Amino acid sequence: MENSPQYLFLASGVNNGEGFWIVGKKHCDENILEDENILDCHRKELIGNESAKDILLAINLNVNNLLNELISKNYLIEKPSKGISFDIPLEILENIFDFWLDIYKNQEAWEACLGLLKIRKRISLKSLIESESLKGNSKKWAIKIETLHSYIPSSLKIEKSNKPMWE
């Protein structure tokens, strides 16, 4: 059961009239669409449980990095009560899902990319790329990871108004 097959999936859903994306895993004998909140499954891959956990961790870290960066830049991003905001386009999530699923097949590449993703949580990789600090495959992967974080919404930024200090 430890490494039993799992479906790693990307789906859209709705909960109390609120739409969301969800990336998750289910046992291979469970139907993803049996969940009453799931509307449509956009990606579904049958893999081992440990692999599914690892890839899910990387996908979630990538999505959280992206959302945190957009929020820090004052973009208006809805926060659904469940899952990932529909403000992130499906194509962006599919690219993130596909990249981490594909890179997992090469252990050396996986470890390098996961390390770069963890660095990307704290700082942009652009300066490392531009400074020639990274070479070869590391540079190639850093560029790809940076690309996975490059989405800018078409919605306007939230303009923060400073309240007077006496209020």
Describe the overall structure.
- The structure is a single chain.
- This protein starts with a strand and ends in a 19-residue tail after the last helix.
- 43% of the residues lie in helices and 19% in strands.
- A 3-stranded antiparallel β-sheet has the order 2-1-3.
- It has one domain (5-148).
- The protein has 167 residues and is an alpha+beta fold.
Topology, number of strands: 3
Radius of gyration based on Cα positions: 18 Å
H and E string: EEEHHHHH
Percent of residues in β-strands: 15-25%
Principal-axes shape call: flat
Helix-residue proportion? 40-55%
What do the pLDDT scores average to? Answer: 89
Low-confidence stretches: none
Question: What is the spatial order of strands in the main beta sheet?
Answer: 2-1-3
Number of domains: 1
| Termini separation | 59 Å
Describe the largest sheet: 3 strands, antiparallel
Class computed from helices, strands and strand pairing: alpha+beta
Please give the count of helices. Answer: 5
Summarize the structure.
Helices cover 43% and strands 19% of the residues. It has 167 residues and is of the alpha+beta class. It has one domain.
Keywords:
3-stranded antiparallel sheet; 43% helix; alpha+beta; 167 residues; 19% strand
Topology at a glance:
Elements: E1 5-15, E2 18-27, E3 38-48, H1 49-72, H2 90-103, H3 107-122, H4 126-130, H5 136-148
